[in-house]
Design brief:
The chain is of the alpha/beta class and 533 residues long. 38% of the residues lie in helices and 15% in strands. GO terms for molecular function: pyridoxal phosphate binding; transaminase activity.
Length: 533
């Protein structure tokens, strides 16, 4: 076999990287474009990532690099603190308390107590512990197709994940059902054991959900109708002799289809849940820190009077550095502290593990990085930037929608935008093949844009916050020409979209690969979708 030589930013060449990954990395750890030449990214800057050959890719999906890849101020802050001290939080350190004080100024007054952890998954795990401790109840309501993390506890509240795990719904420790119709069947015969149970509420999507805007007159309160589904779940839960500990939600739905919650949804759901003795958890991991433009936090889009009891933060808080947080009320925090003393003997192992978790979370280096990220958000006015560029992105995509029948819906706030592709605007039949085909072709032209939703037919925009109007023009222009080509190909075959996608995929090997940005090579059918970022 002919040996390859690595580039200046590689330790080994791409082929060797792929070979070693295949041997040593678990197969469930997926990569983008697996069969069509996965990208090897060796450098990032701002809203761009670069492969080993020096090709630049415009990053439209990496919300983790919130203020841009390798922002110099963030890099400097982390390096300087690491040169001074990196230890756990059992020692007093200014970084921890000053950042907590600074960040809570962005929240409503009642959200004033912080817990530092290492990831969004850990934050949501801790949020559930706080909720169950405070309420003394066990059941959790989540949204169908939700995603809240990879821990065993957070997978249990993530239908986006557990719906695809063989045997998960047979576990007796967590019971899941959707709506009310099959509740009794699912929990029997072990419901009397008072084990923890998770209940799925219908996804409150007014374009593709149970209550669609096209089926109701303009101005209909669909948020209230979806909220009443949660009330029905609460009523049935009480009938079964159980109680709700918490309702957890993303403030804008990501993996479920990239859309905002309908007006009045949270206002009513929060009222129902609290009346039932539960608390409300807002997962801001993907939507917080100014991404929605109009507000710092996504839940604020529902009204200034809408405030959760617990908020979880992750990913963007450290621009990719491992730090996350839970922010809650003094009342919830006090309940948690009281449990630690009262049940120390019976939960000693649990208490020690949690203590270790909280000790490492919020170490001086991680908090220095988080503080630097907040500096950049403030100094570069990135929240306002997200509002302005996001509005321009939405307007540009809506203009694109007028020219392309494949685009069924454009929705979002700030730099959190979804574009849903459909085969027919009347029936709203999802065009998953075409969405994935478009993302593959965009990749060949240096744009990274992936798909989301139950049918993988929603193009998701969650770029670094430094994404510019020029970047919008670039992406929309490429989408315009590629959509026209896809629609033309489909028209030639009487709109047999699936056949077109399969035909293009099977002929990919015959396409020229002289330039990765000029050719339109396609992958096999198994690659016509992205994993969630």
């Amino acid at each position: 076999m002919e040996s390859c030589a690595p580039s200046s930013l590689e330790k080994i060449c791409k082929d060797e990287t792929m070979r070693l990954r295949d041997i040593y990395i678990g197969k469930s750890c997926t990569v983008f474009f697996k069969s069509n030449g996965p990208l090897k990214i060796v450098r990032g800057q701002g809203q761009y990532m670069y492969d080993e050959a020096g090709n630049a890719y415009l990053d439209c999906i990496n919300n983790v690099a919130h203020v841009g890849h390798c922002h110099p101020h963030v890099v400097k802050a982390g390096a300087e603190q690491m040169a001074l001290l990196s230890t756990n939080s059992r020692y007093l350190h200014d970084n921890l308390v000053l950042y907590a004080q600074r960040l809570t100024n962005y929240f409503p007054n009642k959200l004033s107590v912080c817990y530092f952890v290492n990831s969004g998954s850990e934050a949501n795990d801790l949020a559930m512990r706080l909720a169950r401790c405070h309420t003394k109840h066990k059941d959790i309501i989540c949204l169908d197709s939700a995603y809240h993390g990879h821990l065993q506890s957070t997978t249990a509240i993530s239908p986006y994940k557990f719906n695809h795990i063989i045997g998960w719904q047979k576990k007796k420790s967590v019971h899941v059902h959707c709506g009310i119709t099959n509740l009794k069947r699912v929990v029997a015969p072990w419901s009397k054991k008072r084990e923890e149970r998770v209940v799925k509420a219908p996804l409150p999507c007014t374009y593709r959900g149970k209550y669609r805007d096209c089926d109701y007159p303009a101005g209909a309160d669909l948020g209230l109708k979806y909220a009443q589904e949660v009330q029905n779940i609460i009523n049935q839960t009480h009938t079964d002799g159980r109680r709700i500990a918490a309702f957890i939600h993303e403030s804008l739905v990501s993996c479920g289809g990239q859309f905002p919650l309908p007006k009045n949804y949270l206002r009513n759901v929060y009222r129902y849940v609290r009346a039932a003795g539960g608390v409300c958890i807002a997962d801001e991991v993907q939507t917080g820190f100014g991404r929605v433009g109009e507000h710092m936090w996504g839940f604020q889009l529902q009204g200034e009077d809408v405030c959760p009891d617990i908020v979880t933060l992750g990913k963007p808080i450290g621009n990719g550095h491992p730090i996350a947080m839970v922010v809650t009320t003094k009342e919830v925090a006090s309940s948690f502290e009281a449990q630690g003393a009262e049940y120390f003997n019976t939960v000693r192992c649990f208490s020690l593990l949690l203590l270790l978790l909280l000790r490492y979370g919020g170490n001086p280096v991680s908090v220095a990085v988080a503080a630097a990220v907040l500096d950049v958000i403030e100094n570069e006015r990135l929240q306002q930037h997200a509002k302005e560029v996001g509005a321009y992105l939405m307007a540009s995509l809506c203009e694109l929608q007028k020219r392309h029948p494949l685009i069924g819906d454009v929705r979002g706030h700030g730099l959190f935008v979804g574009v849903e592709l459909v085969l027919d605007r009347q029936t709203r039949e999802p065009a998953g093949e075409q969405a994935s085909l478009l993302s593959l072709r965009l990749k060949q032209q240096g744009v990274l844009l992936s798909t989301e939703g139950k049918y993988a037919n929603v193009l998701k925009f969650k770029p670094p916050m430094v994404f510019s109007r020029d970047n919008v023009d670039t992406v929309v222009s490429k989408m315009d020409s590629l959509l026209a080509k896809i629609e033309e190909e489909c028209l030639d075959l009487r709109y047999n979209f699936a056949d077109v996608a399969r035909s293009l995929a099977s002929s990919a090997e015959s396409l020229s690969t002289a330039s990765s940005f000029d050719s339109l090579e396609e992958s096999s059918e198994e690659d016509l979708s992205f994993s969630s970022s």
